[in-house]
Amino acid sequence: xxxxxxxxxxxxxxxxxxxxxxxxxxxxxxxxxxxxxxxxxxxxxxxxxxxxxxxxxxxxxxxxxxxxxxxxxxxxxxxxxxxxxxxxxxxxxxxxxxxxxxxxxxxxxxxxxxxxxxxxxxxxxxxxxxxxxxxxxxxxxxxxxxxxxxxxxxxxxxxxxxxxxxxxxxxxxxxxxxxxxxxxxxxxxxxxxxxxxxxxxxxxxxxxxxxxxxxxxxxxxxxxxxxxxxxxxxxxxxxxxxxxxxxxxxxxxxxxxxxxxxxxxxxxxxxxxxxxxxxxxxxxxxxxxxxxxxxxxxxxxxxxxxxxxxxxxxxxxxxxxxxxxxxxxxxxxxxxxxxxxxxxxxxxxxxxxxxxxxxxxxxxxxxxxxxxxxxxxxxxxxxxxxxxxxxxxxxxxxxxxxxxxxxxxxxxxxxxxxxxxxxxxxxxxxxxxxxxxxxxxxxxxxxxxxxxxxxxxxxxxxxxxxxxxxxxxxxxxxxxxxxxxxxxxxxxxxxxxxxxxxxxxxxxxxxxxxxxxxxxxxxxxxxxxxxxxxxxxxxxxxxxxxxxxxxxxxxxxxxxxxxxxxxxxxxx
Amino acid sequence: xxxxxxxxxxxxxxxxxxxxxxxxxxxxxxxxxxxxxxxxxxxxxxxxxxxxxxxxxxxxxxxxxxxxxxxxxxxxxxxxxxxxxxxxxxxxxxxxxxxxxxxxxxxxxxxxxxxxxxxxxxxxxxxxxxxxxxxxxxxxxxxxxxxxxxxxxxxxxxxxxxxxxxxxxxxxxxxxxxxxxxxxxxxxxxxxxxxxxxxxxxxxxxxxxxxxxxxxxxxxxxxxxxxxxxxxxxxxxxxxxxxxxxxxxxxxxxxxxxxxxxxxxxxxxxxxxxxxxxxxxxxxxxxxxxxxxxxxxxxxxxxxxxxxxxxxxxxxxxxxxxxxxxxxxxxxxxxxxxxxxxxxxxxxxxxxxxxxxxxxxxxxxxxxxxxxxxxxxxxxxxxxxxxxxxxxxxxxxxxxxxxxxxxxxxxx
Amino acid sequence: xxxxxxxxxxxxxxxxxxxxxxxxxxxxxxxxxxxxxxxxxxxxxxxxxxxxxxxxxxxxxxxxxxxxxxxxxxxxxxxxxxxxxxxxxxxxxxxxxxxxxxxxxxxxxxxxxxxxxxxxxxxxxxxxxxxxxxxxxxxxxxxxxxxxxxxxxxxxxxxxxxxxxxxxxxxxxxxxxxxxxxxxxxxxxxxxxxxxxxxxxxxxxxxxxxxxxxxxxxxxxxxxxxxxxxxxxxxxxxxxxxxxxxxxxxxxxxxxxxxxxxxxxxxxxxxxxxxxxxxxxxxxxxxxxxxxxxxxxxxxxxxxxxxxxxxxxxxxxxxxxxxxxxxxxxxxxxxxxxxxxxxxxxxxxxxxxxxxxxxxxxxxxxxxxx
Lengths: 572, 412, 370
Fold this sequence. Notes:
The complex is a heterotrimer of chains A (572), B (412) and C (370). By secondary structure, chain A is α+β, with helices and mostly antiparallel strands. Chain A has helices at residues 2-13, 29-34, 49-53, 61-72, 107-119, 123-126, 153-161, 173-181, 228-239, 270-281, 291-298, 315-324, 358-388, 395-404, 412-432, 438-455, 461-475, 480-518; strands at 80-89, 92-101, 133-140, 143-149, 167-170, 185-189, 195-198, 244-251, 257-264, 310-312, 327-331, 337-340, 520-521, 524-525. Chain A folds into 3 domains: 50-198, no CATH class; 228-342, no CATH class; 366-525, no CATH class. In chain A, the strands form 4 sheets. A 5-stranded antiparallel β-sheet of chain A has the order 1-2-6-7-5, with helices on both faces. In chain A, strand 11 and strand 12 form a beta hairpin. The longest helix of chain A is centred in the C-terminal third of the chain and has 39 residues, at 480-518. Chain A is flat and about 120 Å long. Chain B is of the alpha/beta class and 412 residues long. Chain B folds into 2 domains: 32-59 and 70-205 and 219-254, no CATH class; 262-412, Nutrient germinant receptor protein C, domain 3 (GMP Synthetase, Chain A, domain 3), CATH 3.30.300. Chain B has helices spanning 2-23, 83-93, 110-113, 118-126, 143-149, 158-164, 180-188, 218-222, 256-266, 331-360, 378-384, 386-389, and strands at residues 34-44, 50-56, 74-80, 97-99, 105-109, 135-139, 195-201, 237-238, 242-246, 249-254, 271-277, 285-303, 306-319, 394-397, 400-406. In chain B, the strands form 2 sheets. In chain B, strands 1, 2, 3, 4, 5, 6, 7, 8, 9 and 10 form a 10-stranded mixed β-sheet that branches. In chain B, strands 11, 12, 13, 14 and 15 form a 5-stranded mixed β-sheet that branches. In chain B, strand 1 (34-44) and strand 2 (50-56) form a beta hairpin. In chain B, helix 9 (256-266) packs across helix 10. The longest helix of chain B has 30 residues, at 331-360. With 370 residues, chain C is mainly α. Chain C has one domain (8-369): Amino acid/polyamine transporter I (Up-down Bundle). Chain C has 13 helices and no strands. Chain C has helices spanning 8-24, 27-35, 39-61, 69-111, 118-134, 137-161, 179-184, 198-202, 211-238, 249-256, 267-297, 305-318, 323-369. The longest helix of chain C is centred in the C-terminal third of the chain and has 47 residues, at 323-369. Classes of the chains: A alpha+beta (572), B alpha/beta (412), C mainly alpha (370). Chains in contact: A-B, A-C, B-C. The interface between A and C is medium-sized, with 29 and 39 residues.
């Protein structure tokens, strides 16, 4: 027992040598040598030259296997599967292996249509005929000449033994890696210096569902998904024309993300298509994962926060634009399609515009333009008028504003900034709140906070109205990017309105207008069709469907006429 | 690249600081720190040339969404030598700065207006804040009494009360909505003289007469002006009649009926009621509701070097007084009514016109502009001097009244 | 800066901008003070003279397709005349802009911004032309089209709402201040159309030179209509007040017109549109000045020219020390300089160029026949 007590006290006052866990990533190579970093990993080994050198497939299976094993690090990588087996062809056995990534292939398809016909003996692979196949016989001077064709194993396997719908022959390891990474399985056969790239994709993906952000009442309810082939199939079904060209590109050194450029060959302007492809092909980045990132890399002017490409998740909207003569860019892994070019008016249109009667669409469009103006101008105008131009307000309204502001200690400018920033915080917080209490936060934030702020005399009631109307108007803007841009721009209106009244508003408005005027999206002036005014100037409003005879002027399309002068022939 | 961004950033900060400092935005009087004047009063001062009064809206404390209820305007008066020095003195007294952007009425006492007031009108219009559509009222009592009694009866806000007072001219024709701009324009004009709204405080004492009469005394109705109207109420302000100026000096006033004639002449009547002696029953009166068909046709010419003006107003009338003993309203009785109305209006308008010409010697109807076409050069017109020639003018009035019917009842 | 070719609407907007600016400022007042009640007859006379001028210009420009006044001056008198005319126009544009800017800044300072120093107000307004010209001539032209459209609508609203206060008898006495003032001295009132000097410079910018005729005629018609109706409003509603009011007559019209109980004083909105108009005008003037400057000096890029021009305009703007000096400058210097330069010297050059070209064409024909 004494020992125990001794031990206890010893432990209590013992010096404990502790070095804190200090792991830092050095920024540069010099720092690295200076720092005494605590690293869990041994220093990197230099790359072995073998892997980078091998470009083309070797006829020997074992060499290919080694190259694949080192390239894919199969000792460590758990989901790269190499299935070795014996392939039977013409009753002879060849060694072979199948390379694929677990979870990306459809196992049933591979079993039934690749391994089964190749491994198991059946009539196809045991059929033995002579090695020599006569192709031509010529008789002259009593001498028979025969032209023979030697047996080609690759051809034989390709044509007879692999009953899979999409099989390609590849020779380079880069292409092989790209194929396997996208979900195919690759067949290596001994003595052959080509491999077979078999499409047996079976990875789990999201099914075609309703669009989350662009909801319409009377239109179709399909949306793009992450897989590029599904998206292109959606487009094909709607457009239903063989002139729809879908070209494939790969972007990103490491990620090799698949990208599709879609356009109508007999409508879209060739220069526009060439420009789009030129920009996409000349992006030198390591990886690309989202359409938003791609948009920022190919747009004309990245400094301005205005959107210059239309982003949509609806295939019907994309097809409409496609048939107008624009170019669609699809990216694998992103459910948003990018449409080039995009003008200011496009961001004010909703996909519902074509489905409703044109009068309703025009009314809604006017409402949206009003929403843009309110979002930008209302807080700035309020600050400018109350500070500099009080005579503008009618007397009764002015007295009610003054009476309600009696107990508020802040000047109008700070009050406005406080409320605006609180609303932005509520909006941002609402995105991250777990869903059971999500709606509650909205109600709490808006109602209770606003009311409590008024009761505590921090803000005046009229300011709550103004901020609330501005927020609602910013939600009414159909395009998310444009709405965001307006939300940011209105702060400059507020600040300059506070400083210089209507002169400040005029300055901000002019600068805004000048930037809009100077902006171009893929060669098209941003403010089409307002300025410059062209021949087929239709204006903001949608004309009735029977009057939409020509396609838009600014796209300079190959097929100008959309419909006849009298499109409703049944009436005449 | 980084260096350039740094430079731009520093430049931006410097510019922002300059702008914030120089714009004086934090010094600006925003709407909280202003005292809103509803009405300005100009009166004769005891110790100085001008006694300036301000009726200021004192907005009560409101909680939540009550609004400025129970608006009790406060009145501040100062003796000063000019309007702007008076404003400065009041500013040093009040806790907020005077702001005239929402001033609804400029009230000038009769006594003050008997001396030239053009200097004050010009000063008021030179002020950026004063709106040109402020009403201008000449009071028969002094300004302090007027403000004391100008409490709204049917409205809650005093400012709104002032807005509605002159618009009664739309449906009564006993006053006219005269704005500062109209006054100023007429003051500067070579063919017109200014008028202003006549205001006063309702004096109940004038009603306490012992004799009541059986016959209606429509002369009493017609000759009412502000201050001696026959309204029996709780002593609020009233605006009946007009004040007549020659150049910028007050020379007289128009009664209710004379105001009606004035509005007929300038073609600004919307609808009004007149009393005429009844053609059917002796000693009785009949009330007609008049609506002017179009502006009166005015011809102006020189006859024997004297100006001769012919005024031809035309009306549509409806009979308002209906009696059960009267005969049926057929074409003949309507014609009788029309004749009576015509002759009545002719005589009243003619009396009024001669009064302006001979008594006031002030062309408040703007007849001068009808003579402009007789001159080729502007200098000729100036040397003609219409103002001194107006007193030699002859008038002829030819009214045309068309009585259509009565309203709901036909006489039996 | 390369300019894309502009269409009819934008060209018309370019030409109208200066005239609209002047209409908003003190042009109607100066015209009225000269002629008195006969202002409308004078306006008709001036419009007639203007149409003659425009027809002459269209006829001569048919021979000089794609060339502006500077090129024609070079054709007539060589480099010497080219430099003189260019310098005259540059001095004209810069000085006029400075005067107009100062006039306007004084106006808004009286109305709303008494606490902000004049130089700051002027600098703020001058920021926009710099920004616009840095973005290129195309932005200037497009921005201008938007602003002209807004201004035309706001002026139309003011003019239509002022028709309620018309007193038609004010048209008499017909000849106002006299025949001399109406027709002879009054002919100098053609400086109201001084903005049409841009017609000389707009030819190279056009998409197709056939548009030039339409542009000239349509812009003259629109300008004449607005000038006529502004003067009519002034005459019929407020003639007696014109000599008394300092700030622009359009402001007087707007202030005195009744827009209804709710919008009791919508001045601020209209002043907002006028600020935009002034900014757009300054941008256009700097653009044209840069074009002219580039022609005579052959500099590679005009990127930094807006800064210099704006500084010059600011200096000129701050020179006059009170409003009276500005009024005299406008009335005498601007009027006579403009009339002499735009309506006398330039047409003479065009006529001489026409004769010279005809001679050379005839000479070429004779040679061909030989």
